[in-house]
Amino acid sequence: MPNESGSVYGLTILSPIIDDPHARISHDLQLRMHLGALPRGEDSPFAKVSSTHMARLTVMNDVVYVGMPACEEHLQSQYLVFESNFDGDLDTYLRRMATEIPDHVDSVWSHCIGYPGAGDVAAFESYMKKCQLTTTFYFADVNDKTVQQTLRALQTQAAVASFIERNQGKPAAELQNAFTKFLGKLRAAPDPRPGSGKDQSI
Amino acid sequence: MSKLNETDIQGFVLRGYNFPLARYMFLHLADDDRAGQFLDRLLPSITTGEHWDDGKPDSTVNIAFTHKGLRRLRLPAASLLSFPVEFLEGMQARSAVLGDTGRNAPERWESIWREERVNAWLGVNAMSEQALESCCADMLRIMEETGGASVVGWQDAAALKVDGQLTTKEHFGFTDGFGNPDYLGFERSTQPGQGKLMPDGSWAPLATGELLLGYADEGGELPVAPIPHLLANNGTFMVYRKLHQNVAAFRRYLEEKGRQYVGGKEKLAAKLVGRWRDGTPVELSPDSPDPAIVMDKKRNVNFTFGNDNAGTRCPIGAHVRRTNPRDAFGFEGRLTNRRRITRRGLPYGPYAPEGAEVRDDEERGVAFMVLNANLARQFEFVQQQWIEYGNDSHLGNEKDPLLGNRDEGGSFLIQGTEDPKNPPFLCGALPGFVELRGGDYFFIPGMTALKMMSTGTVDPR
Amino acid sequence: MTNITGKTYAMNAITPMKPWKTWILRGFFFLLGHIKPLQADLVNLSFIHFARWVVIRRDSFPRLSAAQPAEDLQYDYLLFFSNFNGTWNQYIDAFSAVLGKGLNLVWFWSEKYPGAVPVTPFKQYIARVQFETDFYYTAYPHATTNDVKAAHRVQQALDTLADGSGNTSPAEFEQAYVRFLVSVQRDLGSTGLAPIGV
Known about the structure:
The complex is a heterotrimer of chains A (about 200), B (about 450) and C (about 200). Chain B has helices at about 10-15, 35-40, 65-70, 75-80, 85-90, 95-100, 110-115, 130-145, 230, 245-260, 265-275, 290-295, 320-325, 375-385, 445-455; strands at about 20-30, 60-65, 120-125, 150-160, 160, 165, 195, 205, 235-245, 340-350, 365-370, 410-415, 425-430, 435-445. Chain B is an alpha+beta fold and about 450 residues long. The longest helix of chain B has 18 residues, at about 130-145. Chain C is α+β, with helices and mostly antiparallel strands and about 200 residues long. Helix content of chain C is about 45%, strand content about 20%. In chain C, strands 1, 2, 3, 4 and 5 form a 5-stranded antiparallel beta sheet that branches. In chain C, strand 1 and strand 2 form a beta hairpin. The chains are: A alpha+beta (about 200), B alpha+beta (about 450), C alpha+beta (about 200). At the A-C interface, strand 2, helix 1, strand 3, strand 4 and helix 5 of A face strand 2, helix 1, helix 2, strand 3 and strand 4 of C.
């Protein structure tokens, strides 16, 4: 499947944006303003759909004219681009979007043509799939680890560095003792929060 | 490749003079025709790359300008705007890019740099005190008589005397000045290890355009340069940074950690830097200094890191490995060839012998200069990515153990083996050993360009 | 508008292609996907978390209702999305220095593509065909792909040490611990903020 690499799925969505000549502010501009104000850290809606490694949303307002001798042409519609890299299969992911962040999804895609709303999960899934483009070539550097595994590993790495520094030069028995305690603490530590950009100290 | 016209290039660009004394004068230029008159009077004194057939002169003179200085010289607007944006902005405006924040932030710089009053750098190198004073007096006379420039500050610098002997050491006790790159067309005899690594393992000089404007660079094009060509040709860009050294903190740290590290204090120092204090590359001699290597020009810069990916000889984060990674990133060095810089400069402040009482607030450091064709691609990249960051070396956010800007304490890991004589060792709670006290970006024009600037004949387009 | 979140940059680019050339490009991507050495440079450069190329045929832009005007285009388009570490200039410099030939095979079919070397016209082209990102999220903004891979190696080494440390004597543990240290000593760099792009 060209949309997948290992256990990671690369979703590309192009949703045509409503062109309403009577709108006081056009939908693409409303969308840009809305997207610009969405939180990006641990309060981001995508932190809630916690299988998301990375995702972006942007307005593609036209194709690009590269100059002579290429010919100039333009799109009839503007498109909302949704690019996401997540764990697992597409159906599960779309269902999670519709059920876990329905208000956010609605507030973005309500600017798009034919959007049925996240309330009807089946209709939402079918809409998104109609907007989906098949990836021609997909590259994922780490494609066998989930978001949670990666966040855990980053937390472990920080904790290990600090453990090594604190216990350098200790006698064997003391070191072993400290390590047992450290391991217990590390394993009991709560899951790191996606999007926070911090490793909780152990 | 075209032949270099050495008499059109300022001598400071082509060679490190190896004079024991220097005074860097910082000038403010008059905001009228007198600035050009000053430059015109100065021109005959400027040292070019000419051959010294009659022996070395007693002193040398070179000049460079900030963007503000070029404005005072009334360069045409089209030329002024055609300079790269980082030079146009100056070093202070680039502080966020360079990681010059916290204790290195411009608020803490010396006032002439903070207030950006420096329009020009006038560098005098000399063999003796007498030659230095006499040359500087000549310069002052030209400034006074033309009214075109005044001195707003200066920096004296001198080779360190250790046990009465002139040395090439810096204040932390390391022999310095290895490893400037070779460039195509330069007459200096090339040393293996100083240019770029070729696929067959040999070394070749870098393209001239990595240093001089107007010549092809390693990317197969002419460097970004101001218009018109004559203004740019044979010129280069210079970074001036006054780097204060906390010698007391450095010695204290070595004492403390050297007691914990199996290899002891000197080996710890060598691992931090990547050279033993006498200059022996740790990569070539990881267990002890070796004067035979230091003396041998075929060996003292001739090494690679490709067979030491684990860093068990030269640590991955060691200063010389970070700032000149050679083949450490693979791809036959192609990720490093366009990031090379040429270094100049001398220490300032008296040398404090080992064991002598020393304080960090004493005036002591290095007047550090970098020459390169592209400030953003070369100096700024090295400073930002390799000194203040670690991702290229797969070291995350770790900084250069020696030059890294820190007051919060960072760490540095000495990679080791399972052999108890060479264990891994984590140097934590690193203090800031080096602090920035000011500086700026300068343009060092070629002689033709200087003449055009002094007479106001740069083509206005 | 933000192309950057934490240590990662979101690049979007769109380039026009004459429709008959699209098939050649598809053939190349098929090879790239099936011949591992071709991907090796991308992996070794190690500054891309995720990247994709999407060919969109001129008649296949999503059309959701009859009221939506059909697109009327002469070109197919190549979309490129990358999640990379480092600054824009650093990324393109490295691409040009190391991956030039591979990139040429991808973009050669696009109109007015100047080639990846020399880098200045290549950068001008990328700047022209790039479009900005309005919203960008990453689950681990403090980590580059190098950081992520290092962290997974540390995790694995720690798990191994932990598994074997149940009933060992202190002396045995110390030996195992030294082996652990040696195995993770390249992978302990801290995470955090990235330098600023220029």
